[in-house]
Amino acid sequence: MSVWTLCFLLFYVVTTRGDATNGDEIKCDLFKGSWVWDESKTYPLYKGSECPFINPGLNCQKNGRPDNMYLNFRWQPHACSLPRFDGEDFLKRNREKKIMFVGDSLSSNQWQSLACMLNNPDQRYSPSLAHQGSFSTIFFPEHGVTIMYLKNGFLVDLVIEEKGQRVLRLDSISRGSKWKEADILIFNSYHWWLHGGPLKTWDYYRVGERLYRDMPLMDAYKIAMTTWARWVDSNINHKKTRVFFQGISAAHYEGKDWGAPSAGNCNGQTEPIPGSNYPGTRYTAEQVVTDVIAKMKNPAYLLDITLLTQLRKDGHPSKYAGGALDCSHWCLAGVPDTWNQILYTILLKD
User: Fold this and answer.
1) Nearest alpha-carbon partner for 205 in 146, 250, 165, 149
2) What are 112-124's pLDDT values in tens digits?
3) Inside any domain, residue 21
4) Active-site residue among 34, 105, 107, 249?
5) CA distance 17 to 256
6) Full residue range of the structural domain in which residue 196 is found
7) 18-27 per-position pLDDT tens digit
């Protein structure tokens, strides 16, 4: 074997081995992979029945879901493996820091998941939960860590103007002061934009002085996300604060989207779609988010969760949400735990 061949093989091993945290950069795409059965039976990472922070509609086992296979799959990237989440290590690394999720109920889904992953009943001091309007905080006193959720599904301003008109100001963010308090920010915005009928929360769009009754949805979304990106670049000190954007989380209301029209929807689904390819179409919003982030002066880190959620048709509360069919949010324990495991992996290299 020649010296050059030996050097190439050593290079190949170093850059492709299954360790997501060695070296200065993560050596694989954490968001390309497949869901595999956990033979070690070490998943889920916590029991929903033992976590006090889960909203009732997401506690699927408590709500009577009869199957539990969905709890025992783990995400396996193609070229590496995710390190197991270590809650004590996460808290130590983020001592005295503030972690804030800003967005819609999918942000809350991830916030609740992280709280459960960090909750340790054996701790000397128990974490405390407080709600103040649309702002919720959980404080872990032994390490001085605060994780927060701020409900703000559009990120840009939604205001009531004259004659009671509900106006979405696509080029305005006036309530971002709390965002500046955080050491780690995880933003999200998408699902509220899809609301129609009685769920729609705005009547008009405004850009500058011009009022629009309507415009193409993705045009409005792009203007708003560009406004958010510019605000972050202008107001967040990237040397102090890490900024992430939670990507587009998939919904499963139409079985035909994953090549199973007879399935109807997510109800009754007990296993992920096998492999690494989702047979349905991509979300237009994915490209919007990617393009906007690419143009940022200090780009946010995109938690590109779309594929790994598209493959999890089995992970929703479905009819075990305590109300209407829910194929948008995620059972806890469940899929959002992987989002936080990936977040932990990324932060490990800091």
Assistant:
1) 165
2) 999 999 998 777 7
3) no
4) 105
5) 37
6) 38-349
7) 344 444 444 6
